[in-house]
Amino acid sequence: MKRNLHFLSKTTLAKIGMATVFSLCACATSHAAVISSGLVAEYTFDSGNANNTGPLGTDGADVGSPVYSMVAGRQALTVSDGNYVQVAADPDVYSGNEARTVAMWLNVGAFTDNTSPFRSGITGTAGDDFSIELETDGQWTLNRWGGDIEENAAGPVGEWHHIALTFDGVDQFTSYIDGVVSKTVTSTFNTPEGILRFGGPRIGKPSEAGDADLSVDDILIYNRALSASEVQMIVAIPELSTSMLALIATSLVLLLRRRR
Question: Of 45, 105, 162, 203, most Cβ neighbours within 10 A?
Fold first, then answer.
């Protein structure tokens, strides 16, 4: 095969190489292409912080010392009791009974009460809360403060699983685990324009904080309810490792040198 390549021109070789690089780059950019419609905020944690890479929304701020590191093949945020990320109130993020989707990858080390990978809204009035909370029995719940929606366990501990919550802005709530519908119920919300938290204590009740043992990655927030096929497309997108990104950059440099 190497011998046959001598019969190809440098231009042809460059085109072959560029096609390969474009394929790799497609993996890197397909995530944004799939989720662009209605995207408000995107927290990938790929740069070792909680900056928002979406078109709207605000950056997250560390509270305590949350950890940004590779966890089972994903560059993720790991939170523990007293160490989490907080995002200031933002009018671009859903409020009231507005349509929304919250999607994320979740890796639970241990199911403990009052441990939360994602929180929004407040507690105290029915429908004010829109948060995911883990339970000691291996279940997880969508808290709405009154009429909480009980879910099945999001897979075994120590593994990555994808969770997506969609609400149509009227009365239809659907949850997905690993791209498969978990539950569809009739519900309404009255989420105040409050802060968001990734990990940490229950908003409004810090005394109820649990001993968190979980990691999250690629938290996506939309201003509409994604369809089942869109959720499945997000789940199907592979995580690009640092080595893969380095390979893309190196390939581009080598090809540019070859074409000189």
Answer: 45
Chain segment 186-242, per-residue pLDDT in tens? 988 888 876 688 876 544 444 455 556 789 999 999 999 999 999 999 999 876 544
In a domain, 234, yes or no: no
Residue 192 and residue 210 in one domain: yes
79-103, pLDDT tens digit by residue?
877 788 988 877 788 888 999 999 9
> E strands along the chain, which residues?
39-43, 60-63, 67-71, 74-79, 84-87, 100-108, 115-120, 131-134, 140-143, 149-151, 160-167, 172-177, 180-186, 196-198, 214-222
Q: How many domains does the chain have?
A: 2
- Is 127 buried (19+), middle (13-18) or exposed (0-12) by CB count in 10 A? middle
One domain, residues 28 and 43: no
